[in-house]
Structure formats: structure tokens, C-alpha cells
Amino acid sequence: MSKDHHHHDHAHDHEHSPEEIDWRDNGVKVIPGNQLDPNTAQTPGMNRATAINNARAGAEKIWAGTVTIHANAKTGVHHHGDLESIIYVVKGKARMRWGNHLEFTAEAGPGDFIYVPPYVPHQEINASEDETLECVLVRSGQDPVVVNLDIEPVEKPEGVLWKDPIHK
């Protein structure tokens, strides 16, 4: 991809007023849902696909894509380095397990948001036996950091109610 670097960065150059920026090429981008890129870091048990990144949309600080987990499947344990992740459940039933021994668990369904802080070892599980779990994923950075971990889970994870700290 031959992008003129000066052209790409000039929107952040204070010498140019907004009237001088070519908004046609440096404005809103629509990425059709059937044109996502599966060529991104993967974890066993799930399929990630990139919608928004620098190469596809010019994004500099965030990454967005989709995650699909087949019925009754679970992912390998992993973390995303110093990145923050937000998962929005579109369809299905997600069970998250996290902790040094995956000792904590919570569930989320369609319309729910899940926040995963940096470095948290976690595993996504499709809690449905017959429905695919479909999610939208947003991360705080461009690097597709996925550190796959070899963690032996504890047998019975401790349930954590899906509530923010204010409403304990």
C-alpha cells in the first residue's frame, strides 16, 4: 500500500486549517461487514476479523473487529498486553473466565458490554450449546497483541456478579 506519509499525517499538522484538509480521503470510512480481514492474531477456539485499523481505515489509536465463537466452544487462555479491550455481545451467551487460575467467572448476553483491562489472563466461552456467539471487539491500540497462555484452570470458578463497583 503506497500511502504518501505526509498526506496521511497532515490532518494532525497544525500548519493546515481544517478547510485545507482533504476530507474525501481523510474523513469518514465505512467498512462493509462482509469485507472484514481475518488476517489478524488468533487464539484457538475463536475467529477474529479486523474491521478498523490503520491499514484499512487510517485509525491510529484504536482497533475494532468481530469475534465469533462456535457453539459449546471455548478459547485458549490469553491476554492482550497493555491494551484495554471492550467486547459487545451481539448474539449468543458469553461466559468470561479470568484470573491467574481462571478462578473468576461472569456471563453476558446480547446488548451487554464486557471490559477487559490490560494483562488480565482470560478465556471466552460460548455458554450456549447450539448458538454461535457473535461479538464486536474494540481495543485501545493498533498492535494485535495476543499473548496465548498455558494456564491450568481451577475446577469451580468463583462467580462474580456482573455489576459495576458502585452497586455492590
From TrEMBL:
Residues 66-137 form the Cupin type-2 domain. This is Mannose-6-phosphate isomerase. It holds the Pfam family Cupin_2. Keywords: Isomerase. The keyword Hydrolase does not apply. InterPro entries: Bacilysin_H2HPP_isomerase (IPR052535), Cupin_2 (IPR013096), RmlC-like_jellyroll (IPR014710), RmlC_Cupin_sf (IPR011051). Residues 10-22 have a biased composition (Basic and acidic residues). It comes from Phyllobacterium sophorae. CDD domains: cupin_BLR2406-like. Residues 1-22 are annotated as: Disordered. GO terms for molecular function: isomerase activity. The keyword ATP-binding does not apply.
